[in-house]
Amino acid sequence: MKRQYLWALPVVALFTLSSCSNDDTVPENKGKQNVVPAGMTEFAVDDGTTRTMGVYTGSRIDFYWTRGDKLWINNTAVTPPLVQSSKDDITDKAATAKFYFDGTYNAQSYPVRYTGNGNNVGDKVTIKSEQKQAIPNDGTHIGTDGDCGTATATRGADGKYHFTLSHKASYITFVPYYSYEFAEDVKVTQIKITADEVLAGEFNFDDNGLDLTSRTTVGNPKKSITLKLKDDSDNNGFSIPTSPNHTKNAAIMVLAPGTYHNFTVEYRLYDQKTLVYGTVSKNYGEVTFYEGKNKKVEANLPVPHYSSDRYYMWDAAIGQHTWKGFESSQPILNDEIDSHYPKISSDARWYNPVMHPATASRSAKDCPNANEFLWYLMYGEPHWDPSIWSIMKHLYDGGMWLKKLSVIAKDQHKTLQELKAAAPGGTNYTTNNPSAPKIYDAYVKDNTNIKLGKPTNSSDYIFLPTFGYYLAGTGKLTFLGRYGYYWSSTPRPDGGLNAYNLYIRRDKVHVGYGDRTNAHCLWPE
Asked: Which region is the signal sequence (predicted)?
């Protein structure tokens, strides 16, 4: 048999015919498919024509007729001329369908319109600005969300009319993925497109299709379309595979044909374990959509990813992160514990026991020293950024931007060496001070003057995510997504087992000290 498809090509999808070896099934209707109900005229969809429910195959959208689909005939011989079908043979979904109209029709041909599933008018089509898709790769919704089409029905020798529907809306199929891998708990819950022009709304519709000049440009023009996935909640959606897989999450949207500027696609993500949600987006500039054609968007979601091997006891050997050799046992969610956390000094992952005024010589040797941390605290102009990122297959949000030391030095008219040699005010916390044996008590400080949002000149800053830390002894993961703990290269000067550190959270930057047996992160700069 012959079937008509909507092919998804790299640029646009062509509306074309191709042969297919497998037949679509049509309900048997108890063997009476060819019997026309009394007093009615049959208008039948030709084999191989397009339908009104979409299923994406990886290279095209296959269409099917669904329960509730109706047709309109433009019969200029009667008043009003637009007549809706009153009966059909669709029970669920079907590759072909028969529609029945009351009365007798004798003209050689009639214009046919499809204005959407559930639409009770034949001269208007509404492309919805809020669309819903319940099942991955199942476009059952497109008929109710704005799909439409026209055809010319031609009378056959048997008195029945046959037609091939030409779709008049445009379509976009999203296949998002994340190459770094998300846990099954992380879902894409909705996809939103925006542009400078009107994408949706009510359009006049005639025998030629959508009247694009009838776009609503006053009042509340629909310059965005949101496709909600799975259900109406914001905490459910489709899975996100590591590579494009349309069977996992293909999402099909209907929109008006046209050329759009500043065309942006936004994905909303939600992690059902961490309860974190957020959006990522991409601007495609100018994009043109043609009637009856589909664009495929395979997007590797631009969520910043961080590796799990960044947690170290203070100045442990390079490469000997806390879960080295036990990566599969590493706790990945807050409050999880594991017995493989290092416990004895003979463990290669153990901290460096060197005493002040010696400094770190291994994994923490390139971290800022105690003096430099105070420069970050006092002159780093902290900006809290609530954007999302991922670590250990899960979604988290939040982190602090701090000015780079090189920028701080320039702002303060100092050299980098001067920042290293003394903290603001002149105290050097990296050397012994016999007159102040507990100088570390004076070191503890906070900066609560926090600006909100990513700085415009972000290249002058470093970003510190809220990685939390692992607690000594139990290996308990704590504060991930709330605090970010970072080691300095300076031990605390009391002969104890503490080292200076810095942490960030939503409302402050803090410098102080912590037990070397805890696992903090190394400085990213």
From this structure: 1-23
The per-residue pLDDT for range 51-70, each reduced to its tens digit, is 555 566 665 667 788 999 99
Instruction: Give the mean model confidence (pLDDT) for residues 65-89.
Output: 94
Residue 520, both tokens = 């903090």
- Residue 215 has a pLDDT of 86
Q: How far apart are CA 522 and CA 524, in angstroms?
A: 6
Strand boundaries in 230-293, DSSP class E:
251-255, 258-260, 264-271, 277-283, 287-289
Q: For the stretch 190-218, what's the b/e string if a residue is b when 16 or more beta carbons lie within 10 angstroms of its beta carbon?
A: bbbbbbeebbbbebebeeebbeeeebeee
d(CA 339, CA 337): 7
Task: Specify the amino acid at residue 293.
Answer: K
| Distance (Å, whole) CA 446 – CA 266 | 36
Where do we find the tokens 């996935």? 229
Enter the tokens of residue 8: 């998804």
395 vs 437: CA distance, rounded Å: 44
- Asked if 281 and 197 count as a contact pair (C-beta separation under 8 A), the reply is no
Q: What whole-number distance in Å separates Cα of residue 48 and Cα of residue 2?
A: 5
Q: Tell me the C-alpha distance between 36 and 160, whole Å.
A: 9
Instruction: At 510, give phi and psi (nearest 5°).
Output: -125, 135
Phi, psi for 379 (deg, rounded to 5): -125, 10
Nearest residue to 521 via CA among 474, 462, 473? 462
**Section 175-184 average pLDDT:** 98
Other C-beta atoms closer than 10 Å to the C-beta of 252 total 26
Residue 90 structure tokens: 């669709």
Written as six digits, the tokens of 214 are 């009838």
Query: Could you give the CA distance from residue 413 to residue 74 in angstroms, rounded to a whole number?
Result: 80
Q: Are 478 and 484 spatial neighbours (Cβ–Cβ below 8 Å)? A: no
Q: Which two tokens stand for residue 397?
A: 């949000």
pLDDT band of 381, cuts 50, 70, 90:
very high
pLDDT digits (tens, 9 = 90+) for 402-417: 999 999 999 999 999 9
pTM over 0.85, yes/no:
yes
Q: Quick one: DSSP state of residue 383?
A: E
Distance CA 128, CA 134 (A): 16
